[in-house]
């Protein structure tokens, strides 16, 4: 279904009972709501959550922003490397405002939040600037963006900036994405290549917006260091990070835990930058644990 939030049309999928604990899930760079696996959603619903997935603005079936043009990533990367301001069509804080408005549009005062990769960056803004909207926060494979933190290898950065050999040929685009997702996947939980290809083909059939990926990459570069925001986060926070993440190294997750008051950390051996099926019960337990901590805080406050 489509919901208007912050003046933007967002595609939303809800699962689970209306009376369940609301859980908003924010996906990463250029990724659609279907990148949250159905099986993981089913396990969260079974745990008592009302799971709310949505396509970020400019992605999937949500409102496109093609009218804003496609940024020059080479220029953005150069300015970012020099510590200069980077222009972007919209900011990660805008996506956080979208999410806060979505929670309100659903008739909720607040929700638990689980966010991955770029979604975790958006969630940092959400929890910092809209604290009353966030009951608990689970941050997966994400970073504050601080320059001092470990970075992906040059090979990984070049892969991210690379393009399909034939950008207008769907088969070529799929093969390009299959290779890229294979590079960032979990070394201990490899997905069979054919399964990865089928999944990416299904995503592309639903929607394919390469311009949005560039705009969101520019937004990440423009956002810079979110470290000052972390001290503002009051929601019970749980960080899940793979020890084998080649895109956002483990040190980034460890840094978040040091800087967010009361945050807990789950370091997952053999996990890369994806959501392997064998780890779904572990993810669900972590999300539920953070939610339980929020309920304990609410109970304590009400009793006081």
């Amino acid at each position: 279904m489509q919901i208007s939030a912050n003046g933007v049309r967002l595609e939303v999928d809800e699962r689970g009972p209306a009376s369940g604990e609301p859980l908003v899930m924010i996906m990463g760079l250029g990724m659609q709501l279907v990148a949250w696996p159905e099986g993981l959603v089913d396990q969260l619903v079974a745990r008592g959550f009302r799971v709310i997935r949505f396509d970020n603005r400019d992605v999937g079936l949500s409102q496109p922003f093609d009218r804003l043009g496609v940024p020059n990533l080479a220029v953005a990367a150069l300015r970012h490397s020099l510590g200069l301001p980077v222009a972007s069509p919209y900011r990660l804080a805008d996506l956080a405002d979208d999410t806060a408005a979505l929670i309100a549009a659903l008739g909720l005062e607040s929700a638990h939040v689980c966010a991955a990769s770029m979604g975790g960056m958006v969630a940092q803004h959400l929890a910092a600037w809209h604290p009353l909207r966030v009951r608990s926060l689970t941050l997966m494979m994400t970073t504050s963006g601080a320059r001092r933190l470990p970075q992906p290898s040059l090979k990984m950065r070049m892969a991210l900036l690379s393009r399909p050999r034939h950008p207008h040929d769907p088969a070529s685009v799929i093969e390009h994405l299959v290779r890229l997702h294979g590079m960032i996947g979990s070394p201990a939980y490899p997905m069979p290549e054919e399964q990865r290809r089928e999944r990416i083909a299904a995503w592309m059939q639903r929607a394919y917006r390469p311009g949005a990926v560039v705009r969101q990459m520019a937004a990440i570069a423009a956002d810079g260091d979110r470290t000052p925001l972390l001290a503002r986060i009051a929601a019970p926070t749980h960080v899940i990070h793979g020890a084998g993440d080649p895109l956002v190294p483990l040190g980034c997750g460890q840094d978040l835990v040091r800087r967010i008051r009361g945050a807990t950390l789950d370091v997952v051996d053999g996990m890369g930058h994806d959501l392997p099926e064998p780890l779904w019960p572990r993810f669900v337990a972590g999300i539920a644990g953070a939610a339980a901590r929020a309920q304990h805080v609410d109970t304590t406050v009400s009793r006081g």
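The beta strands are 2-5, 8-15, 21-26, 49-54, 111-116, 134-140, 237-242, 264-268. Confidence is low (pLDDT under 50) at residues 299-304.
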